[in-house]
């Protein structure tokens, strides 16, 4: 039956897999903390016009990939297809523009929805880690977020990262560049794919990164944006490279890199890893100095990146880099006889309230079966509570690692487990 199958392009996360997610999220939050990026959350649903106006009418996202619905009030709402526009909307609506600038924002494991062909590490519902810095046009901020992304990936153990870097200029100089791109592709436009022909007038820069085999040959000898940059954009890009050199971040200049969203200006970058073969981009971002103004705010320089967690998980698994072990339970309480059942449950609850992870049998297993279950859990300690222990106010604490055990007063068991007797579980 269909109700027992998840929709295509989605994935479940089981208890065995969730420690991997928590590990990645904890590393992301730690890196953001060290860089001063505060965490935000926005609704999964936004007004459709937010994405139409910012992402761009001719982008794949708006043309083909958005999950859009009309609510009972006749309003058009869209499941969030990317994070930056939502973060910019929050920046305006919550008045963050009135605070000291720049404002540094981060989001961890945001659900992102795009109707596209599921591929390696990219699902129709996937999750993103991203950062946004709004309020500063300093190229040092561009360098900082590239550094942040590299630090995050390297802290997870990834090496051999490749940073691709380009500038696409500002609206002032990009208009001239667009005309040059149109002139270059015009003689062969009829031989290019339907997407390229449709984008030729509205968004010609997208012709430069079309992945259709028949179009790639026409990209050779296309004009490069560096020849059309205004003085301000050229200086910004030069300073960014100087900062990256000072931070010892290797990068490769890539004139074909334009990114797929209309709101980008000046800096664009991607970080690739060899483990992904053709689908090798693990992180992408850039500057979007006009986005806040597009949605009704004052001119606000900004820069950020987004990083897909499913794709990152796949890389880490291929590279054998997952650090977390299966999470062990601190304590499993084994009860003997019906009269110890309620006191045993009370003991479990008191240990939980003391900050320990604790559990007990809920299947009516024998004592031997309870011990087998505890060893497979796995758990660090088993507390055995039988009639004799209950009468004497004691409990037998068995260390599962070596089988050693000792009697401990019920009144002191929390101190025993959280102190040196329990190998300092806290």
Please, could you describe this protein's structure?
By secondary structure, this protein is α+β, with helices and mostly antiparallel strands. It folds into two domains: 2-170 and 230-319, BirA Bifunctional Protein, domain 2; 329-422, 3-Layer(aba) Sandwich (Rossmann fold). The chain is 36% helix and 22% strand. The chain contains 15 helices and 16 strands. It has helices at 18-35, 48-54, 60-65, 84-93, 139-155, 171-185, 194-202, 213-216, 231-246, 291-294, 309-319, 341-353, 367-376, 387-392, 413-418; strands spanning 38-39, 45-47, 68-70, 76-79, 103-113, 125-134, 161-167, 252-253, 265-273, 281-287, 302-308, 329-335, 358-360, 379-385, 394-399, 405-409. The strands form three sheets. An eight-stranded mixed β-sheet has the order 1-5-6-11-10-9-7-8, with helices on both faces. Strands 13-12-14-15-16 form a five-stranded mixed β-sheet, sandwiched between helices. A hairpin with a 5-residue loop joins strand 15 and strand 16 (405-409). It is elongated, with a radius of gyration of 28 Å. 36% of the residues are buried. The mean pLDDT is 90.
Secondary structure layout:
Elements: H1 18-35, E1 38-39, E2 45-47, H2 48-54, H3 60-65, E3 68-70, E4 76-79, H4 84-93, E5 103-113, E6 125-134, H5 139-155, E7 161-167, H6 171-185, H7 194-202, H8 213-216, H9 231-246, E8 252-253, E9 265-273, E10 281-287, H10 291-294, E11 302-308, H11 309-319, E12 329-335, H12 341-353, E13 358-360, H13 367-376, E14 379-385, H14 387-392, E15 394-399, E16 405-409, H15 413-418
Parallel strand pairs: 1-5, 7-8, 12-13, 12-14
Antiparallel strand pairs: 2-4, 3-4, 5-6, 6-11, 7-9, 9-10, 10-11, 14-15, 15-16
């Amino acid at each position: 039956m269909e109700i027992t199958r998840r929709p295509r392009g989605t994935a479940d996360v089981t208890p065995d897999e969730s420690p991997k997610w928590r590990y990645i999220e904890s590393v992301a939050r730690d890196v953001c903390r060290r860089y001063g990026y505060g965490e935000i959350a926005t609704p999964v649903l936004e007004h459709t016009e937010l994405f139409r106006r910012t992402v761009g009418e001719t982008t794949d996202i708006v043309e083909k990939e958005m999950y859009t619905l009309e609510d009972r009030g006749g309003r058009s709402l869209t499941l969030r297809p990317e994070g930056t526009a939502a973060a910019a909307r929050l920046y305006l609506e919550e008045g963050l523009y009135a605070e000291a600038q720049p404002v540094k924002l981060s989001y961890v494991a945001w659900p992102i929805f795009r109707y596209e062909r599921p591929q390696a590490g990219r699902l129709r519902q996937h999750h993103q880690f991203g950062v946004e810095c709004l309020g500063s046009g300093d190229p040092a901020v561009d360098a900082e977020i590239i550094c942040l992304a590299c630090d995050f990936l390297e802290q997870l153990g990834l090496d051999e990262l490749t940073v691709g870097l380009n500038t696409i200029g500002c609206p002032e100089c990009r208009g001239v560049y667009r005309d040059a791109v149109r002139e270059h592709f015009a003689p062969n436009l009829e031989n290019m794919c339907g997407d390229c022909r449709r984008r030729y007038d509205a968004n010609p820069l997208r012709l430069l990164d079309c992945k259709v085999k028949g179009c790639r040959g026409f990209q050779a000898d296309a004009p490069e944006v560096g020849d059309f940059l205004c003085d301000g954009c050229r200086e910004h890009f030069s300073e960014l490279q100087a900062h990256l050199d000072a931070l010892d971040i290797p990068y490769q200049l890539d004139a074909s890199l334009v990114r797929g969203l209309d709101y980008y200006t000046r800096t664009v970058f991607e970080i690739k890893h060899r483990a992904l073969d053709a689908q090798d981009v693990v992180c992408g971002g850039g500057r979007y100095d006009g986005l806040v103004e597009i949605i009704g705010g004052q001119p606000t320089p900004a820069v950020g990146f987004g990083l897909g967690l499913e794709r990152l998980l796949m890389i880490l698994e291929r590279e054998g880099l997952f650090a977390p072990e299966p999470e062990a339970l601190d304590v499993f309480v084994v009860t003997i006889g019906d009269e110890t059942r309620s006191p045993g449950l009370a003991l479990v609850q008191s240990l939980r309230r003391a900050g320990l992870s604790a559990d007990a049998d809920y299947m009516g297993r024998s004592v031997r079966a309870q011990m087998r279950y505890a060893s497979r859990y796995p758990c660090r300690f088993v507390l055995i509570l039988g009639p004799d222990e209950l009468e004497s106010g004691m409990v037998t604490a068995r260390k599962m690692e070596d089988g050693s055990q000792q009697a401990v007063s019920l009144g002191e068991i929390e101190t025993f487990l959280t102190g040196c007797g329990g190998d300092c579980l806290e």
